[in-house]
Amino acid sequence: MSRASRLALAGLLLLVMGPACDQKEIATCDITQRACQESIYYRMVNLRGDGYDPFGGLPPVTVITEDEYRAILEAEAAEAAKN
Prior knowledge:
By secondary structure, this protein is mostly helical. It is 57% helix and 0% strand.
């Protein structure tokens, strides 16, 4: 997964954790639970506006901690600095 896609996923999570168009209150969920992952995925499909589901359901999802994410980004930055 590239850095850009990780940043896009982080932005998506921020969008999903905020209020939805049809909800007035902020709703949060446990990202490690499949129902939460499905909710985030289908909200993203709806945000795209085309209604096309390229995966035919929930794509593969991996949940990592903030520290693991930071380590991945730092490793990518170190690798990019070498080049």
